[in-house]
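Justification of resources, computational component.

The compute hours requested in this renewal are based largely on the per-chain cost of generating structure records like the one below. Each record pairs the submitted sequence with a full structure-token output. That output is archived, and it is also reused by downstream analysis tasks.
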Amino acid sequence: MTSSPASRVAHRFSRLAALLALIFLAATSGCSGEDAPTITEDPSTPPPPATGVAINVDPSVEYQRMTGWEAVTQIGELECDHNAFLLYRAPLLDAAVNDLGLNRVRLQLRSGLENNVDWFAQYQAGQIDRATWRTHWFEAVNDNANPNVLNASGVHWGFLDYTIDNVVTHLRQRLAARGERLYVNLNYVDFGNSPFEHSTNPAEYAELVVAAFQHIQSKYGWSPDAVEMILEPDNTPNWNAATIGPAIVATGDRLAAAGFHPAFIAPSNSAMSSALLFFDQLITMPRVREYLTDLSYHRYGGVTSAILQSIGDRAVQYGIRTAMLEHIGSGYEDLHADLLQGRNSSWQQFALAYCGSDDNGGVYYMINQSNPSAPSFSEGSRTRFLKQYFRHVRLGAIRVGATSGDNRFSPLAFRNTDGRFVVVIKSEGGDTLQVRGLPAGTYGIYYAGPSASGVSPDVTIAAQQPLAVTTPNGNGVITVYRK
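The structure output for this chain reads:
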């Protein structure tokens, strides 16, 4: 239907008023940083408001910038049959990078790596069993009394190197072959209690982290992109907001002096609600805002829509990123909410892969090594839905505006660094949608429904032409991406 000249004029005045209101809101709400919304005038004729089953994409509205889809660097490299591991590693990592779309890892830095005994070497040599080795994972022993001078014999990198050699290096190679890079998040872990504690010695904590950066740089030629300060401080005996804050500042200063400028992620509580409380304490501490870049949380407790919205609000208020970096059992519903309400820039379910058949949402892939000479692996039941988001939304992508005229369909739209758009739609029923506002070009379409996943024929659209797409029956996800 063709609108009258009067209605078009009214629409333009309505659009201008909305833009002015949004600009005033952004100017008065303390928005700053790359995650704050930006509103710019679109010189082209805007699409009409979304009604019925229309999805409107608005590239002039920008939200968070993506920093990766994460997994813990665990693929059974120590726990599974070693002969089986050597056979399944390559195809598994091919699938993780090229099919699922993982591009970020949690590389764990255990507190017990600072110890006068190399317990991992003893375990590898068969001198102690796994249970004995495990008792020393978080047994920190100070290298010496001077945090400014490292005693190299007091820190043992064997376990860290083993993980890099067997997992991280292989992921980096596969992403490099795609013209991309792996984002590495170095995560300090301390679930123990020792006479010496990094938590009460910020300079000693900084010494260990800087030593890890320098070791990785020297041996492998790269350095981590981020420092996640402490894994689940609410589940540790010694860490809290009062100890995390000084450690951030001490480590940020020390790394900067050594020429490293990573992101800083905290507080990573197991409970979403306590993470918000910890963050609100951290952000008021002297100099923490100089370094803290990401508000991180897990989803094991204190999960409400109001808390999630508050986390997203903090992103806008302080110009920081947010990240949900662990929840065994989370599927696409949680991911969608975290991206939309929580404004997440990164997200993790848990481990990359493990041997066994327990499909509890703790791994992206399950490994079958019943025949070690012919192992196989399969996706977890949630993985095919997560793939709808991970595969085509890449590192550096910016989430842009997307609205729906029907509350059964919730869209998220992204613009990748190469300018290609991706629209991911969480659906609660089968219907035909009109996706408006996409640039001209050819688009691929694939979906994950209640019982199956599939690919629809490519669609080519001209400028200002809507793209028609049919969602699967029942709850699911459909993805439209520029080819």
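DSSP finds eleven helices and 20 strands in the chain. Residues 68-390 form a domain with the TIM Barrel fold (CATH 3.20.20.80).
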